[in-house]
Amino acid sequence: MPNVKLYNMKAEEVGTIELPDALFNVEYNQPVIHQAVVARLANERQGTKSTLTRSEVRGGGAKPWRQKGTGRARQGSIRSPQWVKGGVVFAPKSRDFSKKINVKTKEVALLSALSEKLRNNDIIFIDEIKVDAPKTKEMVAFLKAFNLEKTVLMVMDNSDQNVLRASSNISALTTIPANQINTYDVVKNTKIVISKTAVEQIKEVYGE
Predict the structure, then answer these.
(1) How many Å apart are CA 128 and CA 107, to the nearest integer?
(2) Rounded to 5 degrees, what are φ and ψ at 163?
């Protein structure tokens, strides 16, 4: 079990934390991570787009002109795709884009992604994620203390309303409780901030 530094919100070292191998020492498995991310993005698609084919467009039952003798190309309906207000040739239709992924596969993907982030020194462990007031400047000061300039995922042990409000106006910061941690957010963000209690909560769900 590796020991890593533990910080406070002011980027001051306050001790160490022992990390369980079951969570942060898992072999990197890129295919499984890719599968989890693709499933997440697919499940977010609404699939509600729909346009009309030539058989669904209203009107066009009569032949616009006779077949021969007019000098014009033969036409069967004014709702054919080449006509203005005609149907669409390969019209998109409503469909279900959702993909299923096994619970065990999803777990392996998450733990593999977390372990790789730790190996790359992209995870910061905090003793307690807390701000004095629900103000954006409180969270900005925290990010500046750690020189976090890119996308950051903050994993809390609970839904602290002050923290949520303080971070809501920062587009590069994603804040979630420990029970909602997922592979997509771990991979998407450059850095991860996890509270000490959040580690324990994740261990209860995914640990040995």
Answers:
(1) 25
(2) -70, -40
* Spatial separation of the C-alpha atoms in residues 53 and 202, rounded to whole Å: 50
Measure the CA–CA gap between 91 and 13, rounded to whole angstroms: 59
Burial 34-43 (b: 16+ CB within 10 A, else e): ebbbebbeee
Radius of gyration of the CA atoms of the chain, in A:
27
Taking the C-alpha atoms of residue 24 and residue 117, their distance in angstroms, rounded to an integer, is 9
**What are the residue ranges in the chain where pLDDT is below 70?**
1, 207-208
* Residue 1, pLDDT score: 62
CA distances from 195 to 8, 71, 83, 109, 124 (A): 9, 78, 62, 21, 8
For residue 198, how many C-alpha atoms fall within 13 Å in the half-sphere facing its CB? 27
Q: Which CATH number fits domain 3-45+98-206: 3.40.640.10, 3.40.50.300, 3.40.1370.10, 2.40.10.220?
A: 3.40.1370.10
The Cα 24–Cα 45 span in angstroms is 31
pLDDT at 207: 66
Predicted local distance difference test score (pLDDT) of residue 195: 93
**Domain residue extents for the chain:** 3-45+98-206, 47-96
d(CA 36, CA 179): 17
pLDDT at 208: 58
Q: Is 153 strand, coil or helix?
A: strand
SS3 state of residue 68? coil
